[in-house]
Amino acid sequence: MSEVYANRRSRLRDHVNAAGTAAALVTRPANVRYLAGAAPQGSVLLLGRSEDLLVCAGPPDDRPYEGRPDESVRLHVLPANGGDTAVAAAGLALAQGADSLAIEEHHLTVSRHRALASVAPGLRLTDLGGAVEQLRVVKDEEEISCLRIGAEIADQALGELLESILVGRTERHLALELERRLVDHGADGPAFATSVATGPHAGRRGHRPTDRRVEEGDFLSVCLGATYRGYRCEIGRTFVIGTSPADWQIELYDLVFAAQRAGREFLAPGAACRDVDRAARQVLDSAGYAEALPPLTGHGVGLEIEEDPQLAPSAMGKLDACVPVTVEPGVHLPGRGGVRIDDTLVVRPEADGGPELLTITTKELLAL
Q1: What is the torsional sign of CA 132, 138, 143, 149?
Q2: Which of 37, 87, 164, 343 gets the most CB atoms within 10 Å of its CB?
Q3: CA 319, 321, 322, 326: dihedral to nearest 10 degrees?
Q4: 211: three-class secondary structure by DSSP
Q5: CB atoms within 10 A of CB 364
Q6: Distance CA 190, CA 38 (A)
Q7: Taking a C-beta distance cutoff of 8 angstroms, is the pair 68, 104 a contact?
Q8: CA R_g for the chain
Q9: Environment class of 228 (CB within 10 Å of its CB; exposed 0-12, middle 13-18, buried 19+)
Q10: CA angle 257-239-216, nearest 5°?
Q11: pLDDT tens, 303-345?
Q12: Which helix (H) or strand (E) holds 142?
């Protein structure tokens, strides 16, 4: 992996140098991990003039499941109570002879920015912007492998839950059980707070589980994800509790399934992000559900659960090969519930079989 990390830093350095800046300071945790491996909490990465430094508040922990920092990057560990790692890194950049430093203004607080300017008044501070986030959009096959394993873990956890008795159990209890099963199957932990929604809550994006109990006739929508070696995937499914779904439940489910399929089939290198959203949204719009739709149809995943690109009506840009995204249309009807279907896929060219589906739990409307 050292060669991979070195190549990523080289690409960032080219971007920084092309902008006329001597050094760069990366502070956003996911970006630090992308460029230098798993680092202690609060670590920052300095791409310096003479060498790259991983500035840490303490030595790395021996936690093999989380990984280790890139061995080719020299660690600079601050003494106990040594202050802010970013401020220390700015001082180190100055000591290396840098006259300018690109920083992640979108991540730094105002007070931290002021501290940087104060400790190194000789440095001209510029904005690095989302340069690292843009590098992260297209994944290599090692990253995709981690996402694939995370998806397998999430599928296993969900499949086991569906084999258990659900009626009478609370949303909160089911969510906690799913998260325990994720860890049991080898995940670092959940990719985000697991959502379990029943009855009138079903289909609501980002629903926080409550003490409502599962009842016969409910829609039950579940959204969960696993983190594996830092990479996060997502899956969402909707089921019916009982033996025979109502006609309105079948009709709504079939509609959302058709929308999700339309979005998935539109994934291809070169496809405009907004067109993927439009493909799914038109199916639901035409059925009269425009007001019940979420603001986006999907998003990128990786070291964070919501990354670029965004699949939304106002999204700019086009998809590339090897970009993992979710496709997750849904409809929530206040007071009645709703349906959400969510998959993680990797954009692939038609010659390679088209989009690769990572989350494979059935999308049939199961009666549990």
Answers
A1: positive
A2: 343
A3: 40
A4: coil
A5: 10
A6: 17
A7: no
A8: 23
A9: buried
A10: 140
A11: 999 999 999 999 999 999 999 999 999 999 999 999 999 999 9
A12: helix 141-162
